[in-house]
Amino acid sequence: MRIFHVSDCYLPRLGGIEVQVADLVRTQREAGHEVSVATATRGEPLPGVHRIVAKMPFDLPVHPFGVGHLTRALTSARPDVVHVHAGAVSPFAWMGVRAAWRAGLPCVVTVHSMWDPVTRGMYRLLRLAYGWQRWRLVATTVSNAAAAPIRAVAGPGVPVRVVSNGLDLSGWAPPPGTPDRREEVHIVAVGRLAPRKQPVRLLKLLQAARARVPARIPMRATIVGDGPARGQMERFLERHGMTGWVSLPGRHTREEIAKVLASADVFVAPAPRESFGIAALEARAAGLPVVARAESGVADFVKDGVEGLLGRTLGDLARAVARLCVDAELRESIAAHNRATLPAAGSWPTVLEGFERAYEQARELRASRR
């Protein structure tokens, strides 16, 4: 199959969408597909990658005449399907959707983010202005939680399928054997320290959990990642006397994160609008109990009381972390289950099958209305 991906951002940028699209492209090529990529991201030449770039402030990944460029590229390539990757706001990606419509090609749009109320309002306005819900699209997104707001905005004319992010879980599996019981409980979180992720709330969660755990139980927390909210977090730790047991080591490589997870007892993913939760899935694959929001995408692979504990409020999450710190038997039983059972989500064969079904549905939808 000839597949043409369109994404605002791509390598050499390193972010959730960029890495996920690059891994999908590689995996599809390994499966025998002919795969191309169009992106508005500057960078060195890569095989099969078309860089449609313009001089924009701050190197923003957008092109003012992107629809025309993409339409010509698609008309020349004539792929079997156009696969567009969009975040909350992705002008170049939606130019790819319009170009696919102009070129008469089947189109699948993967939404990688959770649509908040502002985003939903924006897409309702775009629906009125452009009628994109009539462009014979098939949408996919990474979790049931992320699918609900898209269905509410798009209406019945746009099929919305759930296809999780892909992840090579083999590198996260814990070593065989039962880990030694430690007196200290090590709590870990991994993610970009960006204001929209509300990382200071994570610190408040840890502070509330520490207040609930008896002093005789030592705790420490490691928050892996970097970003513009790091300074604010450091000031919070200083102000509340938490620097002795909470550390911010910065951004880590995959191998370094694996080592941190191997020393951990609990993983926390507190973001309420987490569309999927790759870091949480990695922790789940590493055998850790996961504490996360019940309304986030993490709930697709973490059931309350089985792979971890879920809550709807910050207080719920603080109580869940404290419970796991105090109840070693519960903590170890969840960890034993996670170590013995592979996650159902995230395997690349399942992801490829999910996208191939979406591609076929898009081709059928396009052919049925000619």
UniProtKB/TrEMBL annotation:
Cited Pfam families: Glyco_transf_4, Glycos_transf_1
Keywords on record: Glycosyltransferase, Transferase
GO biological process, one term: carbohydrate derivative biosynthetic process
UniProt domain Glycosyl transferase family: residue ranges: 184-338
Keyword Disulfide bond (UniProt): no
Domain Glycosyltransferase subfamily 4-like N-terminal: from-to ranges: 15-170
Superkingdom as given in the UniProt entry: Bacteria
PANTHER family in UniProt: SULFOQUINOVOSYL TRANSFERASE SQD2 (PTHR45947)
Protein name, entry field: Glycosyl transferase
